[in-house]
Amino acid sequence: MDKRGLSQIITTIITNANINGFIEKNIYKGSTKKVCVPGLNCYSCPGAIGSCPIGSIQAVVGSIKYNVSLYITGLISLIGIIFGRFICGWLCPFGLFQDLLYKIPSRKIEVSKKINSVLRYFKYLILILFVILLPMFLVNEFGMSPPYFCEYICPVGTLEGGIPLVLLNKSLRETIGVLFLWKMFILLGITVGAIFIYRPFCRYICPLGAFYGLFNPISFYKFKLDKNLCINCNACMRKCKMNIEIHKKPNSTECIRCGDCIKECPTKAIKKEIRL
After folding, report:
1. b/e map of 47-84 (b: 16 or more CB within 10 Å)?
2. Which pick of 25, 126, 219, 222 has the fewest CB atoms within 10 Å?
């Protein structure tokens, strides 16, 4: 196993270390739940010891305590400024889930550059609409709103929270409705898609990836291209599973910092860089 896979596994185990949650069939609500984990990890997972960044943003935007939102947004922005989408490639549990699915032997589908360039903006639409605007304006008579992305879209919540809790609690199994079936349909679609297309959720749906991606060009951790060494062989672009023209834009908002391009470059023109 490579370093990236090991890092993803360790992070997944650490952020879901509450084994008692599965034994006691409930959600941990201790003090660490006040802090966001860096990757997309469901708050409702019985093993989760921290809060999901996207869930936290929705919770504060959709409440009457708007002063807290500055703290949450500031914390996640700080993570983005330091690491960018390195979090997606190395620390996100659902990223690991998709990576493992993509390893299943099958005929892979290469999304065309034209289609990919259009679909990649869908995650920004989800970020703006479901994470920010709907929780902010579509509220009840008490000035509060549900977490729209978590409730109606997020497959991570279904995988880590919904399925385990339904399996562990008989009362929940008896109350399964259309919404749960809809979320299962989304999860199933992404699961099947991830076998044939590399990280479809990260590419086209994930609002946290969209948020972190905005910081890629200015993050402390980034990639640097030495144009004097680059021979424009396109080896990096052919190797990149995210369809990025690395030799033209090494710090693209779509880059998850997997490092495959660095390993593939024959002249070592691409390097990791930490710039403060």
Report:
1. bbbbbbbbbbbbbbbbbeeeeebeebbeebeebbebbb
2. 25
